[in-house]
Specification:
By secondary structure, the chain is mainly beta. The protein contains no helices and eleven strands. Strand 4 and strand 5 form a beta hairpin.
């Protein structure tokens, strides 16, 4: 199983980026998909998730209203649209997959992880 994240880069504060994650999962539609991030010297933290069952979305308070998670089951892809980026959003962003579960907030419930893509927001 592979989760391939892409779309990271360097952007100025206030700018936007769109991350993508393509998953080689046969039953992608049955996976809750999540995005986490890890800044230097910090713990990995939850960013957003989209449930497999009904497409409900959840966000960390720090990104609510600025980030949007979405999925395209036909393309086995999950996206993270990031707007109004701030320097504190700088981190490596990881996508993750959690089979047929309604749990989404903690990293330990996820079965598969991508390799991460670096987002750097300059002030």
């Amino acid at each position: 199983v592979q989760l391939q994240a892409s779309g990271g880069g360097l952007v100025q504060a206030g700018g936007s980026l769109r991350l993508s994650c393509v998953a080689s999962l046969r039953t992608f539609s049955r996976y809750t998909m999540g995005w986490f991030r890890q800044a230097p010297g910090k713990e990995r933290e939850f960013v957003a998730s989209v449930l497999w069952s009904d497409g409900s979305t959840y966000y960390a308070n720090s990104v609510k209203g600025r980030f949007t998670i979405s999925r395209d089951n036909a393309k086995n892809t999950v996206y993270l649209q990031m707007n109004s980026l701030k320097p504190e959003d700088t981190a490596v962003y990881y996508c993750s997959a959690n089979f047929a579960s309604g749990y989404y907030y903690t990293a330990d419930v996820y079965d598969y992880w991508g390799q991460g893509t670096l987002v750097t927001v300059s002030s």
